[in-house]
Amino acid sequence: MHDTLFLFGATGDLAQRYLFPSLLRLLGDGLLPEDFRVRALALSPHDTDKFRDLLRPRLEQAMPQASQGDINNLLARIDYRSVDLRNAESVAESVKDLVHRRCVSYLAIPPGLYISTCEGLALGGALTAPNRLMLEKPIGSDTDSAEEILQSIGKLVDEDRVFRLDHYLGKAPVQNLMALRFGNTLLEAVWNRNFIESVHILVAESDGVDGRDSYYSRSGALRDMVQSHILQLLCLVAMEPPASLEADRIRDEKVKVLRALRPLDAKHAAKDSVRGRYTAGTINGQPAQAYQPPEGSEAETFVGVTAHIDNWRWAGVPFHLVTGKRLPERTTRIEVNLKPVTHWLFERPDRKHAQPNRLTFQLQPQENIQLGLMSSLAGPEWGALELQPLELELSVPTGLHRRIAYERLFLDAFNGNHALFVRDDEVRAAWAWIDSVSDAWKAGDLPMEPYPAGSWGPSQAHQFLPAAIVAENRTESGL
Ligand code: BG6
C-alpha cells in the first residue's frame, strides 16, 4: 500500500471539507499504513504549525464525532509546504525529499494547473514508478483542452499509475447500481429496449453556485455535472455486463456506452435539450439570490438533455438527463419506466389509465428503491378486475455506516485498484458528446431560460424530469 500523500490544493474547499476528513476517518479506522504521512501543499505562505491550526477546527466541524486523539494523530502526520504550481522547480523542490517513499500525488487544483504541476512532479521524481497520480475532475473544459492534458501528462506517467476521480463512483449507492444490475436475474431479464420505455437520470441540488463563481462561470452545469457524474451514472445503467470485475473489463464496457451516444445536432437542440439559469426565488422558505455570472458568461445552472444510445440494447430508448442548482430539494435518482403490458384484461382502470411499471433508484440523500406495480391487493375492496397502483418500497436502513466517497477512492488509489476511476478513453468519449451538445446549443442558438430558485427548472424541463417529480409537483409549480 502506498504510504505518502502529496495533497495539492490543501487549503481549498474540497481538501478541507472532504479530503482531510476522509483521511481522518480512514486513520481512525486503522485502514491506513502505520507510517502514513501527508504533505499538504498550496500557495499560501503558511508553515506547518499554522496549517495544522487552520485545519483542526475544519476537521472538528466536518467530523464532530472524531476524538481529539484521532485528530492529533492525523495532524501529526501532516506537514505543509508553500508552492507555486506554475513553476516546475518550485513543485519539484516541494516533494523531492519524500520521493524515496511510495508516493501518491493528489491534484485538487484547477485543471489549468495540471500540466505545470505534473512537470514539476516529474522533475522532482514524484511520477516515476511506483508513484501514482490522482486527478480531480474536470479534466479540461472541452475535447481540445482535455486532449492537451491527457497527452502532456501521458508523457510523464503511465496510464496504469493515473487515477482520475469522479467522486460519484466512490459513493456506495452508485456502486450498488452494479450490484443490483449484475447480481439479480430479474433486472437483466427486462433491461433492454423490449421492455424499457425511457430512463430518467436526475441530479438535483438545492445549493446554488455559492462561492465558486470563478470556476462555475466558465463551466456551467453541462461541463460541471453532466460530463462527469451524470454520464458515469448513465454508463452504469446502460453498460453491458462486464466479463469480470477487473478494472479494465468494467471500463471497457463503460466506454462503449459513451461511444454509442448519438451526438446532438443543432436541428434537434430545441427538442432534445433545455438550458436555464436561476433567478431570485425561495427555497424552504428562505430567499435565494439570482445567479449572476460576469458579463459574457454562458454558464447555465440547469440542463435537461435527452441522450440516445445507438446500440442493439438501447435503440429507441430515450435517456433523459437532468441536473440543476437551486432546485427545491437535493435528490439523485434514476427512474426506469417500463413499457405498458401488451394486452390489458381489466375493467378498471381502463388501459389508458393503467400505470406501467416503474423502477426508481434513489441514491441521495437517502437510498431507496421503489417498484411501481399494478395490483388488486392494494385494497381489500378491489376485486381482481379492478387494479390500483401499488408501490413496493425498499428503504436502505438509516444509520448504515456509509463512508464518504473519497475514503473509498483514497483506499483504492493507495492499493492500486482502478475500477472506480475514469480511464483516458472515457474522458475523451465523454467530452466528444458534451462538445456536440454545446456546439448544437451555439449553432441552434438555444436560449438560456430563466427559472426561479426553488422551482424544478424552466417550464420546458418537464419532458426531461422523472415522471414522479412531474406528478408530485404538477399542482404546486405549474409543471
Ligand atoms: C461536484 C460539482 O463535482 O459535485 C458541484 O463540481 C456539485 O457543482 C457536486 O455541487 C455535487 O456532489 P454531491 O456529492 O454533493 O452530490
Automatic annotation (TrEMBL):
It catalyses: D-glucose 6-phosphate + NADP(+) = 6-phospho-D-glucono-1,5-lactone + NADPH + H(+). Residues 7-176 form the Glucose-6-phosphate dehydrogenase NAD-binding domain. Keywords: Carbohydrate metabolism, Glucose metabolism, NADP, Oxidoreductase. Residues 178-465 form the Glucose-6-phosphate dehydrogenase C-terminal domain. Substrate binds at H167, K171, E205, D224, K325. Pathway: Carbohydrate degradation; pentose phosphate pathway; D-ribulose 5-phosphate from D-glucose 6-phosphate (oxidative stage): step 1/3. It comes from the Bacteria. One of its GO terms (cellular component) is cytosol. GO terms for biological process: glucose metabolic process; pentose-phosphate shunt, oxidative branch. NADP(+) binds at D84, L85, K137. The active site is at H229 (proton acceptor). The keyword RNA-binding does not apply. Its EC number is 1.1.1.49. GO terms for molecular function: glucose-6-phosphate dehydrogenase activity; NADP binding. Catalyzes the oxidation of glucose 6-phosphate to 6-phosphogluconolactone. NCBIfam families: zwf. PANTHER family: GLUCOSE-6-PHOSPHATE 1-DEHYDROGENASE, GLUCOSE-6-PHOSPHATE 1-DEHYDROGENASE G6PD. Belongs to the glucose-6-phosphate dehydrogenase family. This is Glucose-6-phosphate 1-dehydrogenase. It comes from Stenotrophomonas humi. The gene is zwf.
